[in-house]
Amino acid sequence: MSDLLRVDGLCLATADKSLVEDLSFTIAPGERFGVIGESGSGKSLTALAITGLLPRAIRPSGQISLAGQQVVGASERQLAALRGPAVATVFQEPLTALDPLMPLGRQIALPVQRRLKREGADTSRTAVARDVRLLLDQVRLPDPDRLIHAFPHQVSGGQRQRVAIAMALACRPQLLIADEPTTALDVTTQAEIVKLITALVDELGIALLFISHDLAVVGQVAERVMVMRHGRAVETGPAAKVLTAPDDAYTRKLVDAARRFDTALEGRA
């Protein structure tokens, strides 16, 4: 089986600073892959490079193959064709990712319309509304009649993130990128969103690139993980191995810190 995503020797740099150096990894169709690292390690920049959404000041080199298409050096038209059917992203903060002036139902309807048009399917208002409803059910959103007409500020953070997930799934991507999707949420809602994402990618048979600084969360989601530090991969391997018996000294420090934190929390309980 060929890889859905292959990153080979990826480097990202500004005019005077290297941000990501010689990064290589693969994701197979249907695989759940986690990227762990502290702030500034290059996790989110790597995700932006995969989707062709890097800021103009950052220059990519190396190779990124997504669904058989080379991303580095591709035209905007070629990249736009990949966004949706090949890859879709759920960002960290849904309140800024969503349009504050557009009802949530309309925001989900837009990618639904694009997909139906791409597939040559019925794009009538009835057909789009039916798919919007199905997506709301899929992401377990209650009271769809209210949510369709609500604006982002009128719903909770967890509901906004579920809407963002619905918008990503509306495209029926082969790869879903979840970039710190639980950071802005409370602990209970975090657990619900992680469970939802895991269930949906398994149900739909799509691949997942899950980015986080939280080892415990990544351990719940990913089959394989990559640990990044200062723009480089320091360790890659099966999640159970890397997160319990890591080889790299930096990864061991992360795991030990996470264990001490958990122990401290248990002591308070």
What's the structural blueprint in terms of helices and strands?
Layout (H helix, E strand, L loop, with lengths): L4 E9 L4 E10 L4 E6 L5 H9 L7 E8 L2 E2 L5 H7 L4 E4 L3 H4 L6 H16 L5 H14 L5 H6 L7 H14 L4 E5 L7 H18 L2 E6 L2 H7 L2 E6 L2 E7 H4 L6 H20 L1
Parallel strand pairs: 3-8, 3-9, 6-7, 7-8
Antiparallel strand pairs: 1-2, 1-4, 4-5, 9-10
Structure description:
With 269 residues, the protein is α/β, with parallel strands linked by helices. The protein contains 11 helices and 10 strands. The chain has helices at 43-51, 76-82, 94-97, 104-119, 125-138, 144-149, 157-170, 187-204, 215-221, 239-242, 249-268; strands spanning 5-13, 18-27, 32-37, 59-66, 69-70, 87-90, 175-179, 207-212, 224-229, 232-238. A 6-stranded mixed β-sheet has the order 6-7-8-3-9-10, with helices on both faces. It has a 4-stranded antiparallel β-sheet with strand order 2-1-4-5, with helices on one face. β4 (59-66) and β5 (69-70) form a beta hairpin. It is globular, with a radius of gyration of 19 Å.
